[in-house]
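Tokens for Macrocin O-methyltransferase. Go.
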Amino acid sequence: MIKKNPPMDNDEDYARLMYLEVIKSMVSATVFGNKEQSVMPKLNTTSLQSKPLDKSLREAGKDWTDRSLEGGSSIFARAVLAAIGETNRLSFVCDSFAGLPPGNRSLDKRDKYWDSTTYLEVPSEVVALSFSQYGLLDSNVVFAKGFFNDTMPPLSKHIQKLAIMRLDGDMYESTVDVLYNLYDKLSIGGFVIMDDWYLPSQDGFPSKRACEDFFKVSAMQFEHFQAKLCI
């Protein structure tokens, strides 16, 4: 909880922060207290492991939520824009809304079995309803439905500049599909948020490796980029 100490510049600033705190508590599902659970990913199975909410895992981004908003991070991004009065920026919500691809393109052996994780299959209508419930669904929210290898090439033709790219593709394949098609659209001073930078598989961190490989192929010096764990 953000406290009014030290004081904000004015009551409007404080109200904005409190508004974002409410949205954040819904996105992270911490608003539900002990009724929330920590859901643990389990690949190659349709079942999930759950246990009472572990706040240390939630704060470190190492569990999945049980009761959170669908499309929560994109909803929070729109809430930030609304709070600061940015009314003209577009948000592209890109997802298959049907889970992850089968990982049969042989880009990385760690991409297998993600497609059996039914937890990640959320229809676009459900996500749109979540936006609408918080008054954040308007014509500036654009849904791009489909696997990234299908949606990113045509999307790149319609986007001129991006201020922020948030990647949450879990897999090596999904990560490079976005980077190769959209990274050159990122504005100078823009940000890439890798949601799955430290998401482990049996053999390492596929999303992290995808990003590092992309920089190598693009002849960019990775040490010039600062990686931070963002919740």
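The beta strands are 37-40, 49-52, 91-95, 141-145, 162-167, 186-194.
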